[in-house]
Amino acid sequence: MNDVLPTDAPMWELFENTVQTVLKSYGFQQIRTPIVESTALFSRGLGAVTDIVEKEMYSFTDALNGDQLTLRPESTAGVVRAALEHNLTYDGPKRLWYAGPMFRHERPQRGRYRQFQQVGAEAIGFAGPDIDAELIMLCQRLWDDLGLQDVRLELNSIGNAEERNRHRADLIAYFELHAELLDTDAQRRLHSNPLRILDTKNPTMQAMVNGAPKLLDYLDAESLAHFEGVQNILRHNNVPFTINPRLVRGMDYYNRTVFEWVTDQLGSQGTVCGGGRYDPLVEMFGGKPTPACGFAMGVERVLELMKANGEQFAPNQCDVYVVHQGVQAQLQASVAAERLRDAGLDVVLHCAAAAGGASFKTQMKRADSSGAAFAVILGEDEAAQGTVTVKPLRGEADAAKGSSQTTIPFETLSDYLVDQIVGDGDHDHGDHGDHGEHVHYRH
Ligand code: ATP
Ligand code: MG
User: Fold this and answer.
1) Whether the model pTM is above 0.85
2) Overall CATH class of domain 6-159+219-308
3) Which of 39, 100, 315, 424 shows a CA-CA span of 20 to 30 A to 413?
């Protein structure tokens, strides 16, 4: 489990803002479900023979009433539960998204944590291949907006239960023929969940698994048409993909379309996002048959990729740092800081450890390291004369204004700095729109 420190926070914010904007641009609405759900929700929903339910859930008994509870390992089950509980699809299908921490007891390593963040989308009540493609294109837009180029799309169809059953018989027979090559995980799954053996990362099994019967060859016309429909839309929109017949998803609730976004830049934890269709799930949870499709992405992995791509963020604390010396100046400084905030600027007011405060030199050092574009200086002279001194701190602010500081009437401070920093001549700033991004996410 990780701490996200202030130096990394701007990158999280950039990611979160971007993902929200993209989801909104496709008409997705946010849903927030609890972090704790009843254990049965997951054991029923995800399937007993899955990594998550077999060995990854943080489950416990509530000592106060005996309830069996689990920290959510994923969010699809919770979102579907909530959709059913509140009858969200009563007036038609819903496009939903969520973000938040998930918990899995796994071996911690790079890109794999016990508490990690996912952002996901669930489109509930949609039957056609168009929504599958839409979800995929939404992800593509997100990678584009984040400047990520090395994420590729792998696509497959795992058909419906009947098609999988026919395939399963042949698959088990094939694996039995090669029993000597199966590792212990695979032996355990041979009869409970042989499809998952296709997903193995064991290098010594790769060649054998590549030769296994392909589920795609067992699909009937309807499943094939759906799969073809997804591909058609992607091709029309120039979204490249490869079909990976071995791609199966971890959870039992998936059917038909499954997809993963994969990168080579993160070593063995290269899947940044996985998704697919889960038509059976709503009915499994006691609802009317309701088709659905979704994805979940691992935020830490996406951020790691952003870092690998050289994204760098200067974590500027503020636009303006206010320094002061003297009792009257300190009072004036607090007024100056409030006025600048009224004007939409981000302002740090130097707080003295004791009355009288630190030397100007110490304060200016703080101002420098805050990343502020300007220092506002109030000394005894300024306080007495009703003026304020403004000093550009950074190269660009500097160049814009000559290098030296200027002393101006106190009353003109907000207008002056808004002009300098926002530079659009509009002084009536409740919020300063683009400027915020510009200053805080300077690459
Ligand atoms: P894997 O095969 O890597 O275990 P998964 O199939 O268990 O992945 P999903 O349940 O599909 O993963 O979750 C969607 C995404 O969430 C993954 O593609 C990955 O980016 C991220 N993710 C899953 N588990 C972790 C984890 N323990 N730490 C960080 N990110 C994770
Ligand atoms: Mg996993």
Assistant:
1) yes
2) alpha beta
3) 315
